[in-house]
Amino acid sequence: MTQTRADALARDADDPLGFARARFALPEGVIYLDGNSLGCLPRRTAARVADTVTREWGEGLVRSWSEAGWIEAPAKVGARIARLVGAHADEVIVADSTSINVFKLAAAALALRPGRRTIVTEAGNFPTDLYMLEGLARLTGIEVRAVAAADLAAALDDDTALLWLTHVHYRTGAVHDMAELTAAAHAAGALAGWDLSHSTGALAVDLNGADADLATGCGYKYLNGGPGAPAYAFVAARHHDALDQPLTGWMGHVSPFDFAEAYAPGKGMARLLCGTPGIIGLAALASGVATFDGIDMGVAQAKSCALGDLFLDLVAATCPGVAPACPATMRGAQVSLAHPHAEAVMQALIARGVIGDVRPPDVLRFGFPALYTRFVDVWDAVAVLADVLAREAWRDPRYAVRRAVI
Ligand SMILES: *Cc1c(COP(=O)(O)O)cnc(C)c1O
């Protein structure tokens, strides 16, 4: 039990992942509970990026594509991410953004299931997933069916090419059973694809254990790759030979530097590439992924879950006026609370050094990445929230002005 601040400190002293916090350059005076939106700055990233810029680019110039291994970086960093998602090293590559990868992977799924004309997804899925699928539907004439979570399995039929889901819901933190839903998709003859933006680096993901076909996710959330970091894509090895994605840029060609006029797809995940990779962003992402060196994701998941449980327990005991907006179990590394003035409450918290975020209409969201969040941070953050609510500090008119990014 954690009944006092000293109890929270004692849990931190016992934390098997406590050492990992030193891998980050954290600002003073801030309790950061928004690593699910933008991960923290790893201590080594500034030097790593500076080396890429000044030595590899500044001195090596164009030679660095070969000599500094730039050309292999998407596959190399992808292989490091593969360990975190239960994939083989050659099943993951870093490329583009999550949004663009959703498009490429969903289009590839249509090509792998010719004749099938429907993609099933969850109503309330993250907007970019819905928008990209809508765009693909406009282009191809297929139908996107977005249904409630409880109706997903029943929505699959012999016209379904792909079940496309986000594993951890961005607003509620609810986790889908990846193995069960993948099996349901397969039973209908469809493929199963997963957006892992709120999963990779947060939970013990096992794509191959679940027999998943496709996946993608963000580099800048739990992977700590920096703002706008490139994303990654996964395709199960059994689909590599037949994989056909429509954004056939030259970097996905089997031999881009032959400058052939006709496209021929690269081997395996290489064909997921489109244009020239952003090497500076990849260097920062590599440094972010390296913060997981030696980390057992099962241990990390258990810690994030315990931090979230403590947060919810303390909120229940000290914060009347907010209600949990997340499941008690089967929850990602985040917790959501409902409050009718969520945005003003969050601005009051941020003004007091507790950083989370909000999602419309009324959700306060708090993330608990295991590598740098402490139990005492949870204790202190709930104390600030309780005070803001008890004194109605959020009613200050300063907090009524909407920020550009919430
Ligand atoms: C954050 C997030 C994205 C972001 O996509 P970008 O293309 O990187 O902007 C996509 N999907 C989900 C589920 C997310 O949470």
What does this structure look like?
By secondary structure, the chain is of the alpha/beta class. The protein contains 12 helices and 13 strands. The strands form 3 sheets. A 7-stranded mixed sheet has the order 2-8-7-6-5-3-4, with helices on both faces. Strands 9-10-13-12 form a 4-stranded antiparallel sheet. α1 runs antiparallel to α12, α4 runs parallel beside α9 and α10 packs parallel to α12. The radius of gyration is 22 Å and the shape is globular. The two termini are 34 Å apart. The site of pyridoxal-5'-phosphate has 13 residues, from α5 and α6.
Q: What's the total helix number?
A: 12
End-to-end distance: 34 Å
Q: Look at the helices and sheets and give the structural class.
A: alpha/beta
Q: Give the overall shape.
A: globular
Major sheet description: 7 strands, mixed
Poorly predicted runs: none
Residues in β-strands, percent = 5-15%
- Ligand species: pyridoxal-5'-phosphate
Tell me, rounded to a whole number, the average pLDDT.
97
Helicity, in percent?
Answer: 25-40%
From N to C, what is the helix and strand string? HEHHHEHEHEHEHEEEHHEEHEEEH
Spatial order of the strands forming the largest sheet: 2-8-7-6-5-3-4
Number of strand elements: 13
> Radius of gyration in whole Å, from Cα?
22 Å
